[in-house]
Amino acid sequence: MEETSNCCIIRYVVTGAINHTHVPNLCKNDENNDQLDDHEVGFEEEEVSGHKLTETDVYAAVELALDSVIKIFTVASSPNYFLPWQNKLQRETMGSGFVISGKKILTNAHVVADHTFVLVRKHGCPTKYRAEVLAVGHECDLAVLVVENEEFWQGVNHLELGDIPFLQEAVAVVGYPQGGDNISVTKGVVSRVEPTQYVHGATQLLAIQIDAAINPGNSGGPAIMGDKVAGVAFQNLSGAENIGYIIPVPVIKHFIAGIEERGKYVGFCSLGLSCQAMENQQLREHFGMDTGMTGVLVSKINPISEAHKILKIDDVILAFDGVAIANDGTVITTMVVPFRNRERITFDHLVSMKKPNEKAELKVLRDGKECNFLINVHPLQPLVPVHQFDKLPSYYIFAGLLFIPLSQPYLHEYGEEWYNASPRRLCERALREQPKKAGEQLVILSQVLMDDINAGYERLAELQVKKVNGVEIDNLKHLCQLVEECKEKNLRIDLDDDRVIVLDYHKAKLATSRILKRHRIPSAVSSDLIESEEEENVATSQN
Predict the structure, then answer these.
(1) Pair (187, 136) in one structural domain
(2) Residue 7: inside a domain, yes or no?
(3) What is the pLDDT, as a whole number, of residue 57?
(4) pTM score
């Protein structure tokens, strides 16, 4: 049992865009969901496990949603990670959203990911209005849009957020799925509530499974229960019929609260631990657990987490914030949400719902003795980013050598079977290695832009960069500084597999301009590295 995971085990499908949206990880879009669901509005009332979902209920949801649900038109352009100084061809996608309090529109992050232009349209209105993305949380697949034109807000009502529904409780999903231009409503019931892999952000967060179809274009639309929103539609299960997922209200409120308190999306907290279940009696006895004691074994600790300073490998976590943890790593939901009926969820959910820098109380068994610790929790960034939406990749070119920080989107450029097609060593490091210090990046030589100066080095592409002139590099910015500030006649770059690149520094400097011009590359350095250097210079001058 791990608190975070970079790989999808089950194949889910992001459903926000009718055309391709950028979907990271081991999942892909399903373009075969062209038919509308059989549960559309207008069919006879249906009995669902004792809960009757009538036409009256569905039409009430329609009336409630007509003045609230919005169709979103997005023009997006994703970066080309093999040629990081340019974007790919732009694409047009469509999704759904709905109005919340404060004159804001809530939708999915994948609906507006890598956006360059966003328009919104109300039901029954022929006019499209320009919208801006106020905040976006790719981990939880949520985004907030704003529209400055006051005309748009005339006759618009906002929807209220409700609670987590019971199992088998009826919901109506409202949105603009493919197959038509008008608003659509599908009805179904809640099948289960548990932490689920969010495809877009490759994060494990609480989600609600429903038996209503969520097709491309539906994403961002509300799932209405009674007169309130029970969640936001966002993905379905590939290869299965009528299995969709909605983002529950606790995750939505956590996202919105972070924006209201800090003015921007802040992320979801993590302890930075990997834990092992303790379901084997011999394992429990070995670590001194008495009869009746339950918990999980700490097997790995992220070096940049607060927990690294307090916890130790082989500690047994017995409870989190006073909630006992079972031997399989779960907690009973009646301890978290009073109305739940003996359902269990992993204790990671309790961690993810904490505010950044909020203290968490852990009861720990260490060397046979019970201890209590207070740990500040905060969002943690992996060594290799899982996603990098809404910004251009970082890069640095010297003498035709293209250096970049490794990211999963770079590996995804190898195609749908990237896990098998990309360089094996880089793939394994991307999925398993943890940072040893804050700000660390895994920098690689992505490719060699051929020239006389670098002839013979082209076979060294896709290797990790270790040192520059004997100095271990921390990240791409550090590499750039070491190269630019080189005082030696020769520049030496040490790579993985004990490979070495040596360049005459003065000749390499001159060759860089020649190579950039030949390949029509506007700059040898990505804009984020230039901006970072300028900010440092300003700070230095002020001091």
Answers:
(1) no
(2) no
(3) 61
(4) 0.83
Is pLDDT above 90 for 3?
Answer: no
Tell me: do 278 and 226 sit in the same domain: no
Q: Which of 37, 39, 78, 110 is catalytic?
A: 110
Catalytic residue among 78, 96, 184, 219: 219
Domain span at 319: 273-377
Mean pLDDT score of the chain, rounded to an integer?
85
154, 247, 486 from 217: Cα distances, Å: 25, 16, 53
Q: How far is CA 107 from CA 36, 185, 388, in A?
A: 21, 17, 19
Instruction: Return all residues near 153 (Cβ < 8 A) that are at least 6 apart.
Output: 103, 147
Please write the tens of the pLDDT for every residue from 133-144: 999 999 999 999
Q: Do residue 258 and residue 284 come from a single domain? A: no
Residue 167 to residue 192: CA distance in whole angstroms: 6
- Please indicate, yes or no, whether residues 512 and 409 belong to a single structural domain of this protein: yes
Band (33; pLDDT cuts 50, 70, 90): very low
Q: How many domains does the chain have?
A: 4
pLDDT of amino acid 324: 93
Would you say how long the chain is, in residues?
A: 543
Largest CA distance in the chain: 82
Catalytic residue among 141, 315, 348, 494: 141
Q: Is 305 a catalytic residue?
A: no
The three-state secondary structure class of 450 is: coil
Active site residue 219: yes
Report pLDDT for 132.
96
What average pLDDT does range 139-159 have in this prediction? 94
Specify burial of residue 537 (Cβ count, 10 A radius: 0-12, 13-18, 19+).
exposed
Q: Write down which residue in 377, 405, 420 finishes a domain.
A: 377
Rounded to an integer, the average pLDDT of 364-369 is 94
CA dist list (Å): 314 to 103, 283, 326, 361 = 50, 11, 17, 18
Q: Is 185 exposed, middle or buried (0-12, 13-18, 19+ CB in 10 A)?
A: buried
**Confidence grade of residue 339 (pLDDT, cut at 50, 70, 90):** very low
